[in-house]
Amino acid sequence: MTPRATLITGIGELVTNDPAVGDGSALGVLSGAAIVAAEGRIAWLGAAADAPAADERTDLAGRAVIPGFVDSHAHLVFAGDRAAEFAARMSGTPYDGGGIATTVAATRAASDGELRTLLTARVAELRAQGTTTVEIKSGYGLSVQDEVRALRLAGEVTAETTFLGAHVVPAGVDRDAYLHLVTGEMLTACAPLARWIDVFCEPASPHAFDGDEARAVLTAGAAAGLGLRVHGNQLSAGPGVRLAVELGAGSVDHCTYLTGSDVDALAAGDTVATLLPGVEFSTRSPYPDARRLLDAGVTVALATDCNPGTCYSSSMPFVIALGVRELRMTPAEALWAATAGGAAALRRADVGVLRVGARADLAVLDAPSYLHLAYRPGVPIARALTV
Ligand SMILES: N=CN[C@@H](CCC(=O)O)C(=O)O
Ligand SMILES: [Zn+2]
Questions:
Q1: Distance (Å, rounded) from C-alpha 83 to C-alpha 175?
Q2: Which residues of 273-289 are buried (b: 16+ CB within 10 A; e: fewer)?
Q3: Measured from the CB, is residue 370 less than 6 Å from ligand 1?
Q4: Please, which residues have CB less than 5 A from ligand 2, an ion?
Q5: 310 CB under 6 A from ligand 1?
Q6: Among protein residues, the one whose CA lies closest to atom 9 of ligand 1
Q7: Percent of the residues in the chain that have a pLDDT greater than 70, as a whole number
Q8: pLDDT 10s digits, 134-144
Q9: pLDDT digits (tens, 9 = 90+) for 293-311
Q10: Most buried among 17, 139, 218, 265, using CB within 10 Å?
Q11: How many Cα atoms sit within 13 Å of 136 on the Cβ side?
């Protein structure tokens, strides 16, 4: 049986992220274009006048279309509320990772059904704002059974699952014993449910892991067949970035405090620098220096880091607005980072780009141009369209 095909017309502006088409820019912007999608993939893309016949037709009445956002960093499996901690930070209390224990307690106490309900609502919230691919970390279980449960639930909604047993050392647990567990029994139980392993490498936090500990976690994860990701350089210019690059991680995330050698290492390696400006917004902290990274030729991604402690926002358009307004990225750089950049951070070639064979994961904007993502901050103009 031939697959049913859908023709999408009336596209005001089409951002493909394919530099081989359109205006010659990295965004590969086309006007007067149409798309045919079949079985979740792009079957045809070109001038609307040349579009082939299809079984169904969707007319977007002049709206802009972009690749669906690729949110390459999110912590969505959790219960509980830390609004009071947010309020304290707005009055000057600094963030040090200590509040993670509050979420761990609430998450362990929640039933599978409660966690699933919270998770699916958060995924729906992301999609309603244009995100079509999301990476989801464990890290609020911190016991073998609770980390396994978090990854099992995450795997119900995404293929991009990340084992973050090394988020913090749980309260009352010996550091060395916990490291032994995370790199041993917990890793063995979690690896079959995860694509990635991550570690919160932050010597400035008494709860997180130093460079040697992070290296042990990542090396064990790689030996178990997992790809590597690192929470690095969030609170200080620690060893996270250099470790991530040395070990060939897909991405090092936060990158708020960088030395010159960190930037040089990122520019020479193939690890993506993922910036999470919603965190600096929500913790009233200095923003990372995106221009320094971009000007050095580093591949930069933007993601939400949606989590209950440092940024309880699932909105990629909000992150793009921060990228433009606060990180001084151009609107084009910010959109690329939130789509193709996220795909690079997840080592995916089938998302974050619209070309024949790629996933037909689109975001439709109630606007004539992608510029409106930063031009109209806080206005819900983006939504996911998977055909
Ligand atoms: N920094 C470590 N992990 C999260 C925050 C987790 C929390 O505070 O609950 C982050 O990416 O910012
Ligand atoms: Zn995070």
A1: 29
A2: bbbbbbbbbbbebebbb
A3: no
A4: 305
A5: yes
A6: 309
A7: 99
A8: 999 999 999 99
A9: 999 999 999 999 999 999 9
A10: 139
A11: 27
